[in-house]
Specification:
The chain is of the alpha/beta class. Helices cover about 30% and strands about 25% of the residues.
Length: about 500
Amino acid sequence: MINFYKFHIVKKSRYPKSRGYFCRGDRSDIYLIDIIKFQWKMMKIKFLGAAGTVTGSKYLITIKNRHIMVDCGLFQGLKPLRNLNWENLPFDITMIDAVLITHAHIDHTGYLPKLVKSGYKGPIYATPATADLCSILLPDSGSIQEEDARQANKHQYSKHHPALPLYTKDEAEAVLEQFKVIQFNQQITIAPGIEAIWHRAGHILGAAFIQLKAEGKELVFSGDMGRFHDPVMHAPVYMKSADYLILESTYGDRLHSNENPHDLIAKVINKTVKKNGTVLIPAFAVGRAQAILYYLSKLKELDMIPDIPVFLDSPMSIKATKLLQKYVNEHRLSEEQCEKACNVAEYIRTQKESKELFNVHGPKIIISASGMLTGGRILHHLSYFGPDPDNTILIVGYQAAGTRGRHLLEGKKSVKIHGRMVNVNATVEYISSFSAHADYKDILEWLEHFKKKPRKIFITHGEPVSSENLKKEIEEKFDVKCHIPKYLEEDYLD
C-alpha cells in the first residue's frame, strides 16, 4: 500500500487550534495547510447494520473515491433497533455510486425508500426475481408504515404527535424506477475498475451471493444463504474464492431438525382439528408462505390431513406465490406441483374478506403475514384467535429478539397489539425444519468448496451467540481469521 499526502489550504476558522497543521499568513489573516492522508488502492467496509443482530443489513464499501452499498435493509425487532431506522446514515448519501441487493426480504431492502427519500438517485442492482419481489414488498412495507401511523394516532399510543410513517406507499413505489435488473452469473461494471457478479444463493426467488471485484481483490457477500436440501428452492452454488467474505450467521449456533416437515405439520394440524380449532400460521410472505402451501398440498394429496379450508390472507403473499410459476428455473417444483401449491388455498385479498374469516366456523388453516408478527393482518387474527385454547399458532420461521413471535416462543402469555395487551391461550408450536437459512453445518460444507480460502471472514446477520459459535466452528476447522463487527465499525481491507 502506498501512502501520500495532499495539501489543502483552508481558513483557520475551520480549526480552533492549529495543532497538527502548518500555518502561514500575516496579522490580518492566517491560513492552515490541512494535511490529508490518503491510502492508494484503499478499500474499506463500514457495517451499517446486521452487526450483532439479524436485521438491518447494510454495508458500505469504499474503494478509493467510489462508494458502493450492499443491501439496504430495515431494522426490525427490539425498539432500540427499530429506532435506528429513523436516524440518518452517518455520511452523505449522495456520494453513493450504486446499491447492490442480495435478495428482496425487508431486512435487506426495506430502507431503500428512506435512502431515496433522503437524496439517493443512483442505480439499484438486483436479479429479475428480486426486482419483481421488491415491487411487491416495498409498497406493502410503505402501506404498513402508514397503517401503523394511523393506528398510533387513532389510539394515541405514540409519543410523537402526530405519528408519521418512515415512508409512504407512494415513496416506496417511486424507488422501483431506480432498479436495474442483472442476470445470475452476469458480470457488470458498477464503476470504473469495480465489477460485480450475482450467484444463486437458494434462499428465496432471486436470492444471490454478490461477488465484488476491485483493486485485485474479491469480496463475497453471502446475503442470506439457503439450504442444500430445501424441498422447494434449488441449492446455493459453491463459491471458489474470496479475499474477504461477509457471511451471515442467523443459525450459526444450531442444526436444523432432520424430522420430516410433512409429519410435523400434519401432527399439529390433526391435533388442532380434533379440538375443532384454527391453525394460525404467521409466515414470511416471500418464501415461507409458498413452502407452507406446497406442504399443505402434499399433505392433502397423501390424505395425511383432512380436507379443511386453507386461507392465504396476505395480498403480498398471493402476488409472491404467483411468481413461483414465472421463475420455474429457480426452484425444484414441477409445473404440476406448482399448480397444486398455488391452488390449495383460497386467496383473501381485501380487509373485509379478512375480517369475515372470524365467522368461518370449524377447523381451518389461516396463513398470513408478517412472519415475526410485527405487523399486517396477522395481528388482527392473533387478537381474535389467540385467546382461545382450542386454536394453535404455528411458528415456522426465525423470530428476531423483541418481536411478538419471539415473545410467544419464550412462553409469554400476552403480547401488545395496537396499544393493548392481548392474552394468548392458544397452543404455540414451533417447527424449525421449515427454515430457509443454512445452519452451521450447511455453512461449513459451503466453505469447504473454496479453493482459495478467504483471508478474513466477517460474521454478520446473527445474534451474538450464533455469531460466536459460527466463528469458533470456522476458525477450528479452516484456520481462517474471523471477526464479528460492531455497528458502525469500519475495517480496512489491505
